[in-house]
Amino acid sequence: MTAALHVVEAPADVSAAIRAVKPGLRARIGDYAGVFAQVEEAMKREVAEIVALRERGEEVWPVVAFADVAAGTVPAGTVEAIRRRGCAVVRGTFPRERAEAWDAELVSYLDDNDFMGRYTYFDDGVFRGLTAGRPSIFPIYWSHPQMQAREDANMVAVRGFLNSFWKHESQGRVWFDPTRDTAYPDRVRRREPGVSSGGLSPHTDSGSVERWLLPAYQQVFRHVFDGSWTEYDPWDGAYRTDVDEYRSTVMCSAFRTFQGWTALSDMARTEGVLNVLPIPGAMVYLLLRALQDDIADDDLCGAANGQSLPISARYHSVLLPAMSPIPDVEPGDTVWWHADGVHSVDPVTDQKGWGNVMYIPATPHCEKNAAYADTCGTAFLAGESPSDFAPEHYETGWLGRPSRDELSPTGRGQLGLQEPGQD
Questions:
Q1: pTM above 0.90, yes or no
Q2: Of 345, 348, 389, 406, which residue has the fewest beta carbons closer than 10 angstroms?
């Protein structure tokens, strides 16, 4: 049996909650302006290094061959680069032919069930407050390609490799099992050739005002709020599996070590692609920036409950020059970035070629993730949307939706659909 899924209600007056918490956080830090000045100088050095790397024509994103992941032969320098940058591309996670076949099968699945005839674009608030065009993200979760990719041994191996970057045992507790998967079913993106998109401005997911207001997040960032910011480790899982975000349409009920997606088409870095700030410790800067005296007492640099946490030129201009696009990717490559990673999507005009992906993050087994996976297993059986997403439920009754018996034992386990007699 897994633990019950927890939901936390936001304060009735978020502005008042911010005003109440700021003095205590500032007092804990002590010289919060002086500490922030140290952090800002450290960020400037990191950003300058990344900009210089790009200007020399060198790749900012670490690139790993799946064959090395499978064989346990990833070069030590690459491992260190991933730890330093908080992002990676894994080449050939799946063969090109398989990824292209999945792409074609997704088209058939959508067409056979008249998705476009039924689709009503739902503004769930995810991108409210960010520069954005209408996202080409389809709320489809249970197609054969998505289920097969999530349960595939190659994906399991990659996610296990990525989980290993995190400290999963500390403070006298085991926070998660890096060797065991749970599912976090997410959607697909299909962006057609010729489209223009405003992209997405820089932001982070998995909590906005919660990062300052929730006691569990204050524990995650205890070194930052205690003024000992150099001791903060962005790879320490301590207390992260205790965090329950405020109930909203953008909450994430799982702990993700990495966010990620699987490419289903060729994508050049010039065609409206993902950018990431390759500084996993940048959250220290973001947290302390909101506590400085030039920010209103009821403001956290524009953070708003129920929205992604925005990273803007107004407050965070020091960081933005380091935003770096992914390398060109091919079908079957997977792209990954740290759970706290600042990321954006470039605008594009008259896109050349398709831009198709399946969103699949890394969500290791813990009570929190298992509880959410159980709810997803129930949604899968009914063809409904997972509870973290808008209740659109398009796939109820769809032709071609896989049954429980069509999943592998791994796939069933990821969704809490264990065999009788299993825990």
A1: yes
A2: 406
